[in-house]
Amino acid sequence: xxxxxxxxxxxxxxxxxxxxxxxxxxxxxxxxxxxxxxxxxxxxxxxxxxxxxxxxxxxxxxxxxxxxxxxxxxxxxxxxxxxxxxxxxxxxxxxxxxxxxxxxxxxxxxxxxxxxxxxxxxxxxxxxxxxxxxxxxxxxxxxxxxxxxxxxxxxxxxxxxxxxxxxxxxxxxxxxxxxxxxxxxxxxxxxxxxxxxxxxxxxxxxxxxxxxxxxxxxxxxxxxxxxxxxxxxxxxxxxxxxxxxxxxxxxxxxxxxx
Length: 258
Fold this sequence. Notes:
The structure is a single chain. The strands form four sheets. The protein has a six-stranded parallel beta sheet. A two-stranded parallel ribbon has the order 3-5. The model has no long low-confidence stretch (mean pLDDT 96). The two termini are 31 Å apart. It is an alpha/beta fold. The protein is built from eight helices and twelve strands. Helix 1 runs parallel beside helix 5. It has helices at 10-22, 29-35, 61-69, 93-102, 131-153, 168-183, 201-205, 231-235; strands spanning 2-4, 26-28, 39-41, 47-53, 71-73, 79-86, 110-115, 160-161, 189-191, 211-214, 217-220, 241-243.
């Protein structure tokens, strides 16, 4: 089984390739949470993978919530691993995830990270990558993913292929803690009614169903479901959606865009 979360498609791309290579079932975490009863029994020899983007140098809140409420019945042969995507570094994301897994009697035997095109643009110093840099990152990630998939197929243990950054503890436990506590909210999203073409794409791409259309305009429900993945912002064909004022002159990105 491979459980994944993705907003702008970077992790979905990696998880889909991994599922095709291993022949294992791919499950979307938001859909699993909606079912209410998250109980899973792994078969003999089946791998257990977790794939997600790093949010503020930590595992996304939705991923942590899923692991906390899920029950995994494993076998002695179960091989558990984690693969994450990030814009540059992951801090202590893996250590934090393994702490959540340990409460379920699990531990990631090997961990991997892929540096993918940047999609978070809600801070003054963060922008999308240039088209050239996008291609470079995807090309390199594709090569790395091939190597990682071989290790996963062979159930290799003790493999650590991640980029933690220069001060991982500070990024995850100080900056990341503030980010995930204060900035994971939908209350700053707004729509420019004059630019909106009422296509409904924002509602369709929202992974948690946080967006509803009222008078053909997107409205965020403020119910705590938003992950701040920015899928709505990046997929808007007219750049009508923004996060506060800071994103009005920022670029857009989602995997596979033209």
